[in-house]
Amino acid sequence: MNDATNNHSGVGLQVSHLRKSFNGEEVLRGIDFEVQPGEIFVIMGPSGSGKSVLLKHLIGLESPDEGEILINGESIQSPEIAGKYRMALVFQSGALLNSLTVGENVGLYLSEHRLKPPEEITRVVEEKLEAVGLKDTADKMPNELSGGMKKRVAIARALVIEPQLILYDEPTSELDPLSAAVIGREIVKLKQRIHVTSLVVSHDRDLAFGIADRIAVISEGRILTIGTPEEVKQFNDPALQKFLHADFQHESP
Amino acid sequence: MFENIGEIILLFWRTMLALPLAWRQRQKVFEQFFEIGNASLLMVCVLSFFIGAVIALQTGPVLVERSLSSAVGGVVGISIAKELAPVMMAILIAGRIGSAMAAEIGSMRVYQEIDALRTMNIDPIHYLVLPRMVAIAVALPMLVVFAILVGWFGGAVVADLNNHISIPIQAFFSDLRNVVQLKDVANGVFKSFCFALIIGAVSCHQGLATIGGPRGIGRSVTKAVVNSIVIIVIFDYVLTRILLK
Ligand SMILES: Nc1ncnc2c1ncn2[C@@H]1O[C@H](COP(=O)(O)OP(=O)(O)OP(=O)(O)O)[C@@H](O)[C@H]1O
Ligand SMILES: [Mg+2]
After folding, report:
1. Is residue A109 within 8 angstroms of chain B, CB to CB?
2. Plot region of B112 (φ>0 → left; ψ -120 to 50 → alpha; else → beta)
3. Of A57, A191, B48, B109, which alpha carbon lies 20 to 30 A from B36's?
4. Which residues surround ligand 2, an ion (CB under 5 A)?
5. The whole model's pTM is what?
6. According to CATH, where is 3.40.50.300 located in chain A?
7. Among all residues of chain A, which has the CA nearest to that of B24?
8. A84, A8, A175, A185 alpha-carbon torsion, rounded to 10°
9. How far, rounded to the nearest angstrom, does the alpha carbon of residue A128 sit from its chain's CA centroid?
10. Predicted-complex ipTM score
11. How would you class B168 by CB atoms within 10 Å of its CB: exposed for 0-12, middle for 13-18, buried for 19 or more?
12. Integer CA distances (angstroms), B47 to B90, B130, B148, B151, B195, in order
């Protein structure tokens, strides 16, 4: 059991000069930012700007061409880091294991690492599913769920890890406003309860400005601005203002 | 197709290093094992019966004509046990099970399920590759033992019923017993064990290496089957040469 660091506290995150190209095309062009322990940090930006790629770097699924990612001052590349800090990523697509039931998906981390006895796992799974509004779905298969339900199961699966750093890739993109609000509240509650550091990638302006301690706006692989929601709203950049205020009526042809 | 040999060997090696964890994964090993049996037992039966039958039909009349009818049982027995059962069953299993492994792991790759495992610190080799390798390495030799027996029986039936051969079943089997020794059967079973490892390693590697969408999965499946079969046939020669003495 990997309980050496079972102190429920968020970790700090530092990203410096991060660059990444795929097939000669630069997706991340020098990203720098810092996230404080226990902060909710929202990253906004247009589709294709490299947000998902950035998150994959933060959890170690991609390795950068250049630059560095530090967790509490330690490089994420160092081999011990995976055992030292608990991190979770809620994938944009959910990425549930299709051959397992919802309950098995949510409990996978605990059962595979033998962290709890089976009855205890069942209880934790029920609890986490209830937290995301999916009571009594544990026995369903992922392909019986809607897109939004899958996303919420993925969030439950991340919560089970009791992470110190949790990365959400568009947690509300497939949800109705009501469920989105529930997820938003859950993200804030989680931070208050276990002081987790949260990084949320989202297009959802209501969510972003509602929950963020700070917001970064990313565009074409670069950070446009970072600041509190107020500061970002005031930030005087035509591209940013257009992004923040786009709607059906005001869009010029 | 050989550019990946290094990666395949590496995957195989890493799976072997994970072998002590097999007991922990026994649930998944059993699942895979029964799936293999379920998916292939009937086909193994039909295929090996007719392979035995056709070998008897091809060799029987030729040998009987030269008054070597007592050799029919031995010829059929040896060729099935040492060569045809292991190779044909390996090819069948590559098509039936190797393809399924590549497809399953490939789609998990494409739909980011493997990435999700990695973010949970679950090694895909422990979780996906190991149970499949162990299951196929146990199942294929067992299927081959079964195939050998059914193949002999197929040969005996044809030898008995065919007018150009007409060797009674008892005579066929007593001739067979005079020629075929336990080590010949062991020889074939050992070969099939090696083939199972080839199918497992090639198919799992191909699955993990899948890129692109659903089309990538299709490509992986085809490659897994074709590459497995080619490597099996090459290895068959090498192993036969080594086991000759
Ligand atoms: N594995 C990969 N190989 C090649 N190119 C990739 C890969 N992953 C991402 N890209 C490219 O990187 C760019 C950024 O992709 P990313 O998924 O990060 O966008 P995003 O900001 O998350 O967009 P969205 O809001 O639509 O999810 C895209 O142009 C994409 O084509
Ligand atoms: Mg994305």
Report:
1. yes
2. left
3. B109
4. A 52, 92
5. 0.88
6. 1-86+164-247
7. A112
8. -160
9. 17
10. 0.87
11. exposed
12. 12, 29, 11, 8, 18
Reported as a single tens digit per residue, the pLDDT across A155-171 is 999 999 989 999 999 98
What single DSSP character describes residue B4? Answer: G
Instruction: Say how far residue B64 (Cα) sits from the centre of its chain.
Output: 32
In this structure, are residues A234 and A217 in contact, taking their beta carbons and an 8 Å threshold? Answer: no
Q: Is A160 touching B (CB cutoff 8 A)?
A: no
Among A31, A52, A201, A202, say which to mutate for ligand 1: greatest number of ligand atoms within 8 Å of CB. Answer: A52
Q: Whose CA is nearest to atom 28 of ligand 1?
A: A48
What tens digit of pLDDT does each residue of B73-97 get?
899 999 999 999 999 999 999 999 9
Q: Is the distance from the beta carbon of residue A53 to the nearest atom of ligand 1 less than 6 Å? A: yes
**Gyration radius of chain A over CA positions:** 18
CB of A34 closer than 8 Å to CB of A50: no
- Which pairs with CB-CB distance under 8 Å and at least 24 residues apart come from B68-73? B69/B165, B69/B167, B70/B171, B70/B175, B71/B175, B71/B179, B72/B159, B72/B165, B72/B167, B72/B172, B72/B175, B73/B155, B73/B156, B73/B159, B73/B167, B73/B171, B73/B172, B73/B173, B73/B174, B73/B175, B73/B176, B73/B177, B73/B178, B73/B179
Domain boundaries, given as residue ranges, for chain B: 2-12+25-239
**From ligand 1's centre to the CA of A40, what distance in Å?**
23
Q: Which CATH class name applies to A1-86+164-247?
A: alpha beta
